[in-house]
Amino acid sequence: MKFRSDPAQIRGSIAPLITPFTDDGGLDLDSLRGLVAWQLASGSHGISIGGSTGEPSTQTVTERIQAIQAVAAEIDDAVPFVAGTGSAKLEETLELTAAAHDAGADAALVITPYYARPTQEALYRWYHTVASEFPDLPIVIYNVPSRTAVDVAPDTVARLFRDCHNIVGIKETTKDFEHFSRVLQLCGRDLLVWSGIELLGLPLLALGGVGFISAVSNLAPWAVSRMFEAWDAGDHDTARELHYALHPLVDLLFVETNPAPLKWVLHQQLRLASPYVRPPLIPLTSGAVPRVRTLLDQSAAVLDTPLTKEETA
């Protein structure tokens, strides 16, 4: 919790980790710890678990808490830890947030309650409740309308930021770039805004964003963190070069539903014991493998780990 008292330090490339599973679908904490160690060695500026890439909706509350505790212990305050604690149920969200608080997380990333499509007033009350329950824990709103079917309006973000001292930021996973701009215009630069859309991470920095929580950092953590560092240092040419070099990996993530392609690659690189994804997802299909391999070849400049296995699926 070293960064909890100063959430402005939570900036740069915050890697949103996958959740590794065994071949029979169990939680693989050994692989998870290895991924954390790799992210730290590769220069990621922070680590998150429990976002969309981590398949949280397929896990029990107990499993999610175990993953949070394992990640917190492995990080050991080396970088900020942003724990994903949101659920479609308020009781589960509060239980997960309490566990993250006790594990030493520096902030809680709370997704909008999905499927129910709450009104803006309902969203306000939801986040106000969570923030009030944990007044010493920074809360980050997680806005991802493509997965939740609800969008947190800029006015609602501004109202929460004004009324709740510990709501410190928002992860914007929307391709509506105007939304980014209006949120920052209403809230000012004190609000911490991260992009969850890979190809909007660099552009957001020009508007005053503080970084990105980008799934592609699961594959190229050094390149993603270096892109932020280059921009922050005023080396915008290098930042742009890395942005464009990462395009094939971004395309790779979505050859089939994320994180199936991502897990396949990490398994091939021997970073995961299994490429298993839980239903309703399925592992990368054999028909998609050639496309993934082509995109990997195009990404050689930003990858630090080649494929070491020769499986076809």
Automatic annotation (TrEMBL):
Catalytic activity: L-aspartate 4-semialdehyde + pyruvate = (2S,4S)-4-hydroxy-2,3,4,5-tetrahydrodipicolinate + H2O + H(+)
Signal sequence interval, chain numbering: none
One matching Pfam family: DHDPS
Active-site residues (renumbered): 142 (proton donor/acceptor), 171 (schiff-base intermediate with substrate)
Pathway(s) served: Amino-acid biosynthesis; L-lysine biosynthesis via DAP pathway; (S)-tetrahydrodipicolinate from L-aspartate: step 3/4
Subcellular location: Cytoplasm
GO CC, alphabetical: cytoplasm
Keywords (A to Z) from UniProt: Amino-acid biosynthesis, Cytoplasm, Diaminopimelate biosynthesis, Lyase, Lysine biosynthesis, Schiff base
GO molecular-function term, one example from the UniProt record: 4-hydroxy-tetrahydrodipicolinate synthase activity
SMART domains found in the cross-reference section: DHDPS
Predominant cellular place of this UniProt entry's protein: cytoplasm
Biological process, per Gene Ontology: diaminopimelate biosynthetic process; lysine biosynthetic process via diaminopimelate
Keyword Cytoplasm applies: yes
Broadest EC class assigned to this enzyme: lyase
InterPro entries: Aldolase_TIM (IPR013785), DapA (IPR005263), DapA-like (IPR002220), Schiff_base-form_aldolases_AS (IPR020625)
Entries under PROSITE patterns matching the protein: DHDPS_2 (PS00666)
Enzyme nomenclature, EC number: 4.3.3.7
UniProt site positions, description: Part of a proton relay during catalysis: 52, 115
Residues reported in the UniProt entry to bind pyruvate: 53, 213
HAMAP family associated with the record: DapA (MF_00418)
Stated family: Belongs to the DapA family.
Function: Catalyzes the condensation of (S)-aspartate-beta-semialdehyde [(S)-ASA] and pyruvate to 4-hydroxy-tetrahydrodipicolinate (HTPA).
PANTHER family registered for this protein in UniProt: 4-HYDROXY-2-OXOGLUTARATE ALDOLASE, MITOCHONDRIAL, DIHYDRODIPICOLINATE SYNTHASE
Subunit organization: Homotetramer; dimer of dimers.
Name of the protein this chain belongs to: 4-hydroxy-tetrahydrodipicolinate synthase
Record organism: Mycolicibacterium goodii (Mycobacterium goodii)
